[in-house]
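Q: Convert this sequence to structure tokens.
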Amino acid sequence: MYLRNFDRFFSSLQWQILLTTAQIARNLNLRAFAVGGIVRDAIAREELNSLSFPKDLDLVFDGAEQAGIQVAIALHESFPESKLQIHEKFQTAELLWQDFAMDMATARCETYAYAGANPQVTATTIEEDLWRRDFTVNALAVELDPNFGTKGEVIDRFNGLKDLGNKQIRAIREDSFAEDPRRLFRAARFAVRLDLAIAPETHSEIIATTSSGIHDAIGGARLRSELLYTLAEPRSAEMFELLENLGALRCIHPDLHLPQNPHNSFHRQWRRSQYWLNLLNRLEGKTYSPLQLGVELLLSYLPHQISTKLDLGLTPDQKIRQVKLAELLTELPNLINLSLKASEITQNLQKFDTQTAILAASQCETPQRRIIWRYLTQWQNVKSPLTGADLKKLGYDTGKQMGTILQHLRWATLDGAIETKDEAIAYLQFRE
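A:
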């Protein structure tokens, strides 16, 4: 297959960069290739006639050790507004622009000391580099040409074009999932994002791998990154539901399962938490992280005695929140059954931070959710009509007693007993 009109899938800046990259590679006696998603999506967009530009451009260079780094350094000199990051151990570099990133890799083969380990890298040819990739639809490549953009013909060693046409995702080789558990998450992401079915033999291998327990509770920064990558996807809830069906959530912990209630599914809980978080970020001017909250939501389906001990880089605050969330979910039914006043509910809920309240609201029943919503948007913001300065003018001494008085005035305001300063003064006189 020839990939024609490759330029129309990129912005003018991206195309200029690609042509410059191809020329630099030629000057260094290297070959430059667009690989993986950049080729796959160009083919898919050709059929859909989409005009969106890619955010990630993956290039591979063969012909020398550290070839990708050599080209990246020279390209950075031509585009100094970009930010250069070099990963010498893996023979890769990354150039970052404001709206997109370019990964510059040396064609390489990888060996793993053990399952889930970081790979040991040696330079090789583009043909061998494609062999190390995960799925046939991601092992497509096209050579770049400084005059015409590409040489046109798509390199397809594993029938990726056929799989793409048949809407299937297929592993290139056996044991790839045992070799690298990240591929379990990548399979789910690509399947959902591109509306692909997992090929039967690949599905069977995934099930066999997860059932073996080889990747149970593997933890580590790489697993955490996969969770964040997946949570960042627009259809992330569908991806996690697919991961559940594939048994891949065992990578987090063998006992982790998503809620099975269709009326309170993970999809619904995730959507609620994101909506509430974004709204409260705007109302409060805060910057709570939706992805970090997503990790906490997933872990909350485990007992906190387990979730807080997993090797997933949880901060002390996040570990405390797992414990507090379990406590709040236990207390919530009582806030309904006892018909407490607004002040009494506020006293109960103010023991928990905003993120804990959002996590609880995403999981609880509608009446409890309404109470948390009123607390977060109304009750927690209610203050006493009188300030400390007002009380001082009325003859009250500063100190602990004044704080107690202000608290009682706040409770009375929440319960509708007082509204104005005059009513607050009268309330104090009556109490005396």
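The CA atoms of residues 124 and 291 lie 37 Å apart.
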